[in-house]
Amino acid sequence: FVMLLLRTLIILLIILAFARPAIRSVFKEDGRTSAIIIIDGTASMLYVDNGELLFNKALRKAEEIINFLKKDDTAAIIFSGNNPTFPVPELTGDKNRLLKVLKNSENSWSRGNPIRSFNMAFDLLNSSGALNKEIYYLTDGASNAFPDSINNTNESIRLYTILLGPEKREGSVIEDINLVDKLLAPGKKTTFRVSALAGSEGNEMDIEFFVNGERKGKASVIKRSGNIVGTDFSYIPENEGWYSIYATIRDGYFETGEKRRITIHVPHIV
């Protein structure tokens, strides 16, 4: 039984430059390869670096890996997050099928919890008869991007981490907005809880709260880089019906990640 310390492996096996010769050298020429590509699908991957979302950059890197696979090689893709998604639940040699998955994929907006993704990858590779067994983890390395440890009984599996984005980033992202009060009624105060992932710029960030497109609140939150911070907003709906609620941060680094929206229905009181 081997306890694989992921943080140690990252130091040993990290690939900082994703040049084509580096990828070619990973695959041995004398045997088949089975590769699992784990793509970080958390909210922090919505960061914009040089005009491109980190998530989209990860998709491009995954496409490069798939295109380097040989005729008899197989691969699978896992999108990491609280609930990992496994679009093709098997190792396949059909490159077009894998590339189609990448083309149709979207970020999950979830918090980081990659342990399940790595366990799924190890289980799949342990069942493969290929000589070369590889895991590629495409991530920005943000908070909770790496598990402290994972269990693996197969020492032949090699792990490569590809870090995306700048080492120090600016900007923040809205992670979630939730309805705290479950019983809604006209004239009754309703509370919403907003959580955000803090960037490194400045000591505070402003979170704005909107109802049906009209700003109803603003909060300045003390932050620490890479940490989850949050605040509550309250609103009293005057009438029954549907309400569009969203929270936003206007710092220009995360585009779609700067806003999270929910819709609520306030019922008629008999």
From TrEMBL:
One protein family per Pfam: VWA_2
Protein name: VWFA domain-containing protein
InterPro entries from the UniProt entry: VWF_A, vWFA_dom_sf
Domain VWFA intervals: 36-141
Species this protein is from: marine sediment metagenome
